[in-house]
Amino acid sequence: MINRGFYTLFYKETLRFYKVALQTILAPIITTLLYFMVFSHVLEGRVMVFEEISYTSFLIPGLVMMTIIQNAFANSSSSLIQSKVTGNIVFVLLTPLSYVEFYLAFMLAAVVRGIVVGVGVLLVAICFVSVPVHSFLFLLLFAVLGSAVLGTLGIIAGIWAEKFDQLAGFQNFVIMPLSFLSGVFYSIHSLPPFWQFVSHLNPFFYMIDGFRYGFFGVSDTSPWISLAIMVVAFSGLASFAIKLLKQGYRLRH
Amino acid sequence: MTAAISIRNVKKSYGSLEVLKGVDLTINRGEFFGLLGPNGAGKSTLINIISGLAHADSGDVSVLGHHVVDDYRQARRALGVVPQELVFDAFFSVREVLQIQSGYFGLGKENSEWIDELLDALALTEKANTNMRALSGGMKRRVLIAQALVHKPEVVILDEPTAGVDVELRKLLWNFVVQLNQEGHTIVLTTHYLEEAEKLCDRIAILNHGEVVALDTRAALLQSEICNKMHLIIKTAEEIVTLPQQLAPSVRKMVKQIDGHTIRLELYKDKDAIVDVLNAIAAVDIQVVDLETERADLEDVFVELTRKRASE
């Protein structure tokens, strides 16, 4: 049986972003579609990444995954920092919810937001260009794991940050560069060897590469390696986030 | 009987600042307990430790016998806390806020009736579907109280609940809290309005610089040495610059202040008689046109106890 306390926090976290859907769902969909239109217009026909796959088709999985991970991060991190700054985090801290329930509710709400926005981007994009689906299971696995990893990272950043600008710094100097430089717009095989090596150190690369495999059945790295790296990253970050919550780091003084 | 709240040798420091220096307190079930102290005395830190918002460096706290760290789920179920800060979640309406808070405690639709009762008792029914942002400060304060009570906790802590609240609302709140106490809830109150504590609390603890400097029943505190003092304020026809030499030394000692037409004297209720003072003053030809007395109250006890420690 699902614990009602956990379910309520999860429901509240999803209701929170649903209530401002214009900002949390529609705006990121429009932004991503703008990337899609501009890059596909400029590069279609000039760049061939995988054989028999148009650049526009190639672009879609990367953009969808980038949207998923950025929104998953934004959901948990912004909710936590807002609650901390306004002080209403006490309403959750005063309850019998365990730190695991707290973690799961915030993380799963981030997964929901990431996937809702990602599906929105995908639905609009496939109106313009068709994209094959090689393995729905891989698509789902990478979408859920990618958003879970970023949702967890959002929880960690939200706990750590004490001011909005600290969180914005984390978002602009860590999340944005890592997601932009993860092969959203190109295959890392087109890079010089040194940058290929550097790209392999970027965990976001594996999210996008594995997700792309789900569509095309081809990828820069084995999808199983990507999956293993994602599982390890998720387990490590989840344990760390739960540890912080258990300690009450920057939440219970 | 298990205590409502048991606090044993609780210590807490923030950096080099020792906020709580080994506090011991037992609050009995069904009590209306006042926790008083000046700003920075450690009241809010103590409340945060009881409610789990802060961790003690050492010592033990339990609510209805449930340790607030080891058995935090049960401890928090037994406790409702009205925070001092006027915090709210701007995304939701009043009813949504209460339903969500109720859900955190594992309660669902079966609690709707109680939510309606709370809305009614706190005069919030008309605003049930209004967003929190659109409420006045007083209404937000009432929602905070409803949130603290939504899971029917046996022990309720109100941290400065009437700060910035108008007289009418304060009355409504106190009637409601008194009713809760009569229904068996233990109430712990911190307030800066000492007359409220004096009127409502059965027992009072005064905290100063992280230590309990007084812990007694209201009646006992009001019968203490400090409350033996009273002030007599005399208005004179003529302006007084200095006291006449002939004024009886026993009365001269009582004079605390001379200000134009006013003489303020401090008397001990058990040994000084007002009539003797007036006779002594009349004997030196000072014409009294009016007089009033000020009896010591809890505020004097509070000021005296907290002043003493500060000067040590």
Task: Provide a short characterization of the protein structure.
The complex is a heterodimer of chains A (253) and B (312). Chain A is built from 10 helices and no strands.
List keywords for this structure.
heterodimer, A: 253 residues, mainly alpha, B: 312 residues, Rossmann fold, Alpha-Beta Plaits, 11 helices, elongated
- Seen as an oligomer or otherwise, the chain set is heterodimer
User: Which spans of chain B of ≥5 residues are poorly predicted at pLDDT below 50?
Assistant: none
Shape of chain B: elongated
Number of strands of chain A: 0
Overall tally of domains of chain B: 2
What does this 3D model show about the protein?
The complex is a heterodimer of chains A (253) and B (312). Chain A is mainly α and 253 residues long. In chain A, 76% of the residues lie in helices and 0% in strands. Chain A has one domain (4-247). Chain B is built from 11 helices and 14 strands. Chain B starts with a strand and ends with a helix. Chain B folds into 2 domains: 5-222, 3-Layer(aba) Sandwich (Rossmann fold), CATH 3.40.50; 225-311, 2-Layer Sandwich (Alpha-Beta Plaits), CATH 3.30.70. Chain B has helices spanning 43-51, 72-77, 94-104, 112-121, 137-149, 167-182, 194-200, 218-222, 249-252, 274-283, 298-311, and strands at residues 5-14, 17-27, 32-36, 58-63, 66-67, 79-82, 155-159, 186-190, 203-208, 211-217, 229-236, 255-259, 262-268, 288-295. Chain B has a 6-stranded mixed beta sheet, sandwiched between helices. In chain B, strands 2-1-4-5 form a 4-stranded antiparallel beta sheet. Chain B has a 4-stranded antiparallel beta sheet with strand order 12-13-11-14, covered by helices on one side. Helix content of chain B is 34%, strand content 29%. Chain B has 312 residues and is of the alpha/beta class. In chain B, 40% of the residues are buried. Chain B is elongated, with a radius of gyration of 24 Å. Chains A and B meet through helix 1 and helix 4 of A and helix 2 and helix 3 of B.
